[in-house]
Amino acid sequence: MKKMTTALTAGVLSLAPLAAMAQDSSDPIVIPIHNWSSQIVMSNAVGQILEMNGNAVEFVTTDSQAVYESVRLGDVTLELEVWEGAFGASYRAALEKGGIVDVGDHDAVTREDWWYPMWTKDACPGLPDWEALNDCAALFTTAETGEKGRYLDGPVDWLKHGQERVAALDMDFVVVNAGSAAALWAEIGAAEADKRPIVVFNWTPNFAEAVWPGEFVEFPAWEAGCDTDPAVGPNPDALFDCGNPANGYLKKAAWEGMEEKWPSAYAVLEQVSFTNPQIAEMARLVDVDDLEPDEAAEVWLEANKDVWESWVN
Ligand code: TMO
Question: Does residue 207 line the site of ligand 1, with CB under 6 A?
Answer without folding.
Answer: no
